[in-house]
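ok trying this again, last paste got cut off
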Amino acid sequence: ATGGEIKTVFIQIRYIYLMPFWVFVGFAVLRDRVFVERIFFWLGVVVVLKSIQGIVIYFTNRAYFAEAEYLYEHFFSAYGVTSVFLFAYFFIRHKAIHMRLLNALCIVMIIFVLIVNDRRTSHAAVIFALISFLFLLPPELMKRYGRFLIVSSLSFGALGVLSWPLPLGPGAIYRGLEDKPNNGPSYRELENANIMREIAIAPIMGLGFGKEFAEVYPMPSVAAIYTRYRMIPHNTFLSSWCYGGPLTMAGLSLYFVFMFATAGRLVSGAGMQGLRLIGVLCLVYFIQYFSYVFGDLGLQVNRLELLGGLFLGA
C-alpha cells in the first residue's frame, strides 16, 4: 500500500516467496538418510576443495591479504562452519585411523580458511552454536560427552581471555568483532541510525518496500559497486521493520524461532538418533544464517536461502 518501485519490491521481499519453494524441495528430496548423507558428503568435499584453493591463494598473495578484509566472499563461511561439524561427525563415525586423519586434515584446512576469511558475524555465530549444544544434548549424550564439552568450552574461553591482547588466537578474533571506537561510527552504525530514523517516522506501517531510506547521517558512498545500498541495507532484519512495519519483522521472528525449535528438537529428542545429524547441521547453519541476517544481507542472499530452505524442509 505504501510501496515504491515495484521491481525493487520483488527484490527486497524475495525471501518471502522463494523460501517456501526451497522448503518444499527439501521436504520432497531429503527424505532418505543415506541420500542425505551422500548429498552433504559431496557438499563437504566441495568446501574442502574451495578451502585448498583459498590456502593456495592466501600464501601466493600473502602481502595483499595482510591488509585485505577477507579471503572469500562472506557466505562461504556459513557453508564452511557447517562442513566442520559434518566432518566432525565423519571423524566420530569412522573407526579406521587413516579415515580419521583425513577428516581431521579436512577440518584443519576449513578452519584455517574460516579464520583468514575474517567474517566476524560467522565467528560470533560459532560461539552461540557451541553454547546451544550444552542445553540441547539429550541426557545419555551428556553423560557420555558432557564432561568433554564442558572442559573444552572452559578451555576455549580461558584461551580467549589469555590471547585477548595478543595478535593471534581466539581472543584476537573476537576482539575484532566490533569496530574500534576511536575510528568513529562505522558504515553499518550510520546505516542502522538512518534506518532507525525511518522506523521512528513510520513505526506501524513502515516506509514501504521499493523505496530508499533518507540518508540523514551521511555514509561513505558505495553506489559505484552497489547501487541499491539505500534500499537493501546490511541489517535485513531491522530493515524489514523499516520497510514493512512491525508485523513483517514479527513474521520473520516466528520463522527463525520455528527453525531453531525444530532443529533443537531433532538434537535433543531421545528417539531422534537417525535424524540427529540433520538436527545438528540445521542448528549450526541456522545460527550462521541468523547472524548474517543482522550483519551481512542475510535475507537477500540466494545461497543462504537455498540451503536454509532445504534444511527446514528436511
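PB: full thing came through this time. The chain has a mean pLDDT of 83.
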